[in-house]
């Protein structure tokens, strides 16, 4: 048991079993996202509604109290002084005001003495507070104490004639009824939110299942493809994303099928090519064994034929090893800055005796000195195969023309011959492994059908391109383009 990429891995019976974190599930993430997107606005709306309702209720109640205090202060303003008893009519209104709003009203004179108290508790006592002092200076003050749930309003009492402030009316009103309304509203909002939560949970489950159902079908389809020998195409068209995935996956399956067919064909061809020389040698050996007193000349002839078959077998094996080596070391290029002219000249010098046997003129034309970043071994193998094929598949007294040129970005190698040419229908297959245009002629001159496949692989590894131009009976021209600066693969 160990941790890998944040996942707990358990080894059971030699197999790895991942304990995946639930939050890595797309279904869980979609469900949580729906809950989050749904609940956050609900909670915000709940807070805004409760706060707005409380502010509105308090402001309405405060305005009512201020209005009542103003009315009472206007009635008291007709008195020249606040000393003595308050008229019974005003006292009754103060009592009524206190009862209606469930509050307390006090009248305070200029000496901060309470001369009227609706509770009849503090008459004659002195009260000194910041709000009373400010009110005696002419400021009307209203406060809401949310913690203790009451509203306090102070209003100045002015004498009508002189407009002098002779006292203060202090009203304290409980907001318990507002708090009660808030509690009822909070319960209602909580019920609504709870209902919304249930709806969101159900919706989240349904939506997450609906969205991930195509992915589950895709997973099952892929698993069935991996378990069966034949892969069927994927057809999942629930969403645009699954359509694109299906199309991309089907293309991938198509490539895998082509690769698998190519692999099977390659194995079949390798088996056939390796078996043919062995069969020939066995036939020759059986012929010798079945005869008594074989003449030395016939024995020597058969052994010569067997030697040729062994050489052919050896060439096929070497070419196969070259292909395998290139496939395995495609990222292991031994890049050096080399003189391409010298490489081509060395190759032509080695192949010139082969050309002279068939009286083939081998010409090398170069337009400038070319230096490039290449793998000498792989490039030499590609050039050797092209020139050697041009010599082998040529007519006697023919010619092979090799030219080298370059610009600021690429160098260009062209190998042209006066040979038999390649039919149009075969030109797109000549770089396939074991493909032969003329199988009988290829075996006659010792071809394996791997040379051009090796050449193309070497050119592609240099980030280059190779093309063929040919007319049957009129010769063939191969053109190779390779960058002067090698660019390593980023994969």
TrEMBL record:
InterPro entries reported for this sequence: BphY/WalK/GraS-like, HATPase_C_sf, HATPase_dom, His_kinase_dom, HisK_dim/P_dom, HisK_dim/P_sf, Sig_transdc_His_kin-like_C
Localization, UniProt: Membrane
Keywords assigned: Kinase, Membrane, Phosphoprotein, Transferase, Transmembrane, Transmembrane helix, Two-component regulatory system
Top-level taxon of origin: Bacteria
Catalytic activity reported: ATP + protein L-histidine = ADP + protein N-phospho-L-histidine
Residue span(s) of domain Histidine kinase: 269-486
Top EC class, one word: transferase
Main location: membrane
GO CC list: plasma membrane
EC number, UniProt record: 2.7.13.3
Membrane-spanning ranges: 28-49, 191-211
GO molecular function, one term: phosphoprotein phosphatase activity
GO biological process terms on file: cellular response to phosphate starvation
Gene3D superfamilies: 1.10.287.130, 6.10.340.10, Histidine kinase-like ATPase, C-terminal domain
SUPFAM superfamilies named among the record's database cross-references: ATPase domain of HSP90 chaperone/DNA topoisomerase II/histidine kinase, Homodimeric domain of signal transducing histidine kinase
Pfam families recorded: HATPase_c, HisKA
PANTHER family: PHOSPHATE REGULON SENSOR PROTEIN PHOR (PTHR45453:SF1)
The protein, known as: histidine kinase
